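FIELD: query
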Amino acid sequence: MQSSHNLSHSVHQLSRQLIKHVNITLEPFGLYSAQWSVLFVLKTKGTLTQSELCEYLSVEAPPMTRTIQKLVKLGYVQQVQGGDKRTKKIELTEKAMNEYPQWEKAILAMNDSLLNSFPSELQDRLFSLLNEWYQHIK
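FIELD: result
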């Protein structure tokens, strides 16, 4: 059996390769992996606070602030006042909602090309194992 170090290293290397593929895929749209993560979460979960985004994506506040600022500058997200004056919520703009389908189409095509030789039963098993591991360590 492989050592735990080798397993962790392999998962880390796989993660870096996936990020690289996402960045290449999104390059024509002027987006990067970190920005896509925020856009995807806001699309699937709806309006969230910056703290909620940080917690969900396991990202520290400073890089999340930079990512959100860039997305605001691009016109893809906006900050709106939350329930109290100290809280700002982040939401997708109409521009992002209009462009999201083409981003998603590109990402889905990338996913398909990366997984096309990987049988669906193994994909399901891998998803289950990774999800179980993730739930254990978070």
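FIELD: remark
The mean pLDDT is 94.
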